[in-house]
Design goal:
The chain has five helices and no strands. It is mostly helical and 138 residues long. It has one domain. Helix 3 packs antiparallel against helix 5.
């Protein structure tokens, strides 16, 4: 049992050393930004369109449905919360917090563009047209 504990603690020490010495790379930035600002909201939009066109959302009527769809789409396109940085700092992991902060900064800068784009797509999907038709029911 003691051997297992020592090997686990050695592995965790090695992992922490690797995390602390690693600097965010372009590949890490690209994956983080793409997954959070493009891929996740695209999946949410596809699910909302599939549910709306498939009739799953027919039981919900009124302007609250359009607003709910819009809120869900915009919320899916927002960058992650910085609460993780505060949590890491409070636990004494300030080097890890600085690495995470360096990854979050480009995400917040690029989110200005992606939030506008996902808001436009959300409006096209959720708001009924003047003649009363929706995205799926023309």
């Amino acid at each position: 049992m003691r051997r297992k504990r020592s090997s686990i603690s050695q592995l965790s020490m090695r992992a922490m050393t690797a995390i602390q010495t690693r600097k965010p790379t372009i590949k890490m930035h690209s994956w983080f930004i793409c997954s959070r600002l493009i891929i996740a909201p695209a999946i949410v939009c596809l699910l909302i369109v599939a549910m709306d066109c498939g009739g799953v959302l027919d039981r919900i009527n009124g302007p609250s449905l359009a607003m709910a769809k819009m809120v869900i789409i915009v919320n899916a396109g927002l960058p992650g919360a910085q609460l993780i940085i505060l949590t890491l700092k409070s636990k004494g992991l300030s080097e890890s917090a600085s690495i995470v902060a360096r990854v979050y900064l480009p995400s917040y800068i690029l989110s200005i563009i992606t939030i506008a784009a996902w808001s436009s797509i959300g409006l096209m999907i959720s708001v009924p047209r003047e003649e009363g038709t929706t995205f799926c029911k023309r």
